[in-house]
Sequence to fold (91 residues):
Amino acid sequence: MQETEQAIQALADRLERLGAPLSLPEDWIILCDDDDLRHMPRTMAKRLLAKAKKETARRWLYVRFDPSDMDWELFENSECVTALRSLTRVN
Fold:
């Protein structure tokens, strides 16, 4: 598990140097060009690439937005808050 996490972080670092998450070449280009991915079984390489792309998006969001604000906004949009608001309007 530790090796997988390290592989995801290392690949995410390489993807950031390519401009991730805003501009990346097609997946097949990355899978063919990256030495580590090229020598892996195709399904494992695709899975690792997908996780690394998610990590780059998470990093990008974390740098630009305050995580506590994002958590609060997600909470405000949740069904629990909507239900509570509808209950308070009735009373």
About this structure: The two ends are 51 Å apart (CA to CA). Residues 2-65 form one domain. Helices lie at 2-17, 27-33, 35-38, 42-64, 67-76, 79-90.
